[in-house]
């Protein structure tokens, strides 16, 4: 085992979704913020879509851990089932009796449970992983769960997580009723090369590594190339590289070790494809020139249109937009607005201050709103949602929350703004 050889406290590239090892890339932070926002504002249905191996289950476990003391939750991953089995899994996770009961009775008992939890002030959240495997019939059962509500609010929050097939399923005409109820849609993408380096460094630090650079720069670049930025493939490649390095007594992992590990894992075929031969590029160049011409014409039209609007005195400040429209995760429904809609709508000037963003410095101050829960501290919040807590982060938080006089004291129910992309 290479743990002793490299002086590691534990396995840094394991296969279990341990929330401690969650690397909060900008896209992961945006997805996490969107899901936080959706649960806090009682939006009902939320979705998280990612290709296999992107870390969606780890992110869900992180979210579940963060809400553990504040909500009553169920985590379902047995999705190849019928409606009755699904309800039984759900009831068992909530500690409710389900054996020998029909669907009608289980719905009745679940409804009573949700009302009890609502009266006790405990939100109820269901996390459904690998939701792309649910049949249409079970998805309809899931949709009917959203009918559990009081006159004031939804009694149940549902997070659907799955592969891109889930988004394709929801886009079908027969799924219109369910799709319309999904208020927030978050996505995870592959890590760019620079984030792959941060990902590996983060996992090594969590595992207790304190030595010199364990991977050479060339090795790190090769990991990013062969893994295509997919966290699961990064883990497999790094695990095999460390095993090979230990077997050959190499204290530092080089490019050659990565190449051998990639070959053992058959990742050679995942390397970037060779460039297109010169004679095949001409049609693409022609299409590119035509596209540039169209875009240029569109830009001219855009400038003329807004120049006329400005002279007419009808333009409005584009900075006054909902904070979530600045992120790649989207919020649908009545709260989803584009910058153009806000500019065209005078009522936008009356939006609550916490939903306005007035700084336009390269999106550096994009934020999400968090409602303080019992036992929350600013340090713990930043560590779990931003991945760090230092002077730069604290300075941004104080800029976003000028009313926050004492960062060491947070009141339960207090709303604070946390940056999506904290500055270094």
What report would you give on this structure?
With 424 residues, the chain is an alpha/beta fold. The protein folds into four domains: 2-14 and 191-270, Helicase, Ruva Protein, domain 3 (Orthogonal Bundle); 26-188, Rossmann fold, CATH 3.40.50.300; 282-311; 359-424, Membrane-bound Lytic Murein Transglycosylase D, Chain A (Roll). The protein contains 16 helices and eight strands. The chain has helices spanning 2-5, 26-40, 56-67, 83-93, 103-119, 136-145, 164-170, 176-181, 193-206, 217-227, 231-247, 255-264, 282-311, 339-344, 378-385, 391-400; strands spanning 45-50, 72-76, 124-128, 157-162, 182-188, 330-331, 367-371, 415-419. A six-stranded mixed sheet has the order 2-3-4-1-5-6, with helices on both faces. α6 links the parallel β3 and β4 (157-162). α10 packs across α11 (231-247). It starts with a helix and ends in a 5-residue tail after the last strand.
Give a short summary of the structure.
This protein has 424 residues and is of the alpha/beta class. Helix content is 44%, strand content 10%. The model is unreliable at 273-365 (pLDDT under 50).
């Amino acid at each position: 085992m290479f743990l002793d050889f490299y002086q590691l406290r534990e396995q840094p590239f394991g296969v279990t979704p341990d929330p401690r090892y969650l690397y909060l890339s900008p896209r992961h932070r945006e997805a996490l913020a969107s899901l936080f926002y959706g649960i806090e504002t009682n939006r009902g249905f939320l979705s998280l879509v990612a290709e296999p191996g992107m870390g969606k289950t780890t992110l869900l476990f992180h979210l579940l851990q963060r809400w553990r003391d504040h909500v009553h939750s169920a985590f379902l991953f047995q999705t190849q089932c019928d409606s009755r089995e699904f309800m039984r899994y759900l009831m068992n996770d909530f500690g409710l009796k389900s054996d020998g009961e029909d669907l009608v009775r289980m719905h009745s008992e679940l409804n009573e449970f949700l009302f009890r939890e609502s009266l006790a002030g405990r939100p109820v959240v269901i996390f459904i992983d690998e939701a792309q495997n649910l049949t249409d019939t079970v998805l309809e059962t899931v949709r009917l769960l959203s009918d559990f509500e009081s006159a004031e609010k939804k009694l149940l929050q549902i997070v659907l997580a799955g592969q891109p097939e889930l988004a394709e399923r929801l886009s079908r005409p027969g799924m219109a009723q369910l799709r319309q109820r999904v208020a927030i849609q978050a996505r995870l993408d592959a890590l760019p090369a620079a984030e792959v380096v941060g990902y590996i460094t983060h996992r090594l630090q969590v595992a207790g590594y304190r030595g010199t650079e364990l991977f050479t720069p060339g090795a790190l670049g090769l990991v990013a190339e062969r893994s295509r930025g997919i966290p699961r493939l990064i883990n497999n490649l790094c695990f095999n590289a460390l095993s090979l390095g230990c077997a050959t007594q190499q204290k530092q992992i080089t490019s050659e070790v990565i190449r051998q590990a990639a070959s053992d894992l058959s990742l050679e075929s995942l390397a970037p494809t060779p460039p297109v031969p010169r004679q095949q590029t001409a049609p693409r160049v022609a299409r590119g020139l035509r596209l540039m011409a169209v875009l240029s014409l569109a830009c001219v039209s855009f400038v003329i249109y807004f120049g006329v609007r400005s002279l007419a005195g009808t333009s409005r400040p584009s900075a006054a937009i909902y904070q979530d429209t600045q992120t790649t995760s989207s919020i649908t429904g009545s709260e989803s607005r584009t910058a153009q809609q806000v500019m065209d709508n005078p009522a936008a000037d009356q939006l609550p201050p916490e939903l306005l963003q007035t700084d336009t410095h390269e999106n550096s101050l994009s934020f999400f709103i968090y409602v303080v829960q019992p036992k929350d501290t600013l340090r713990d919040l930043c560590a779990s949602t931003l991945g760090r807590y230092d002077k730069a982060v604290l300075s941004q938080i104080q800029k976003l929350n000028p009313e926050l006089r004492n960062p060491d004291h947070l009141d339960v129910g207090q709303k604070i703004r946390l940056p999506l992309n904290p500055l270094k």
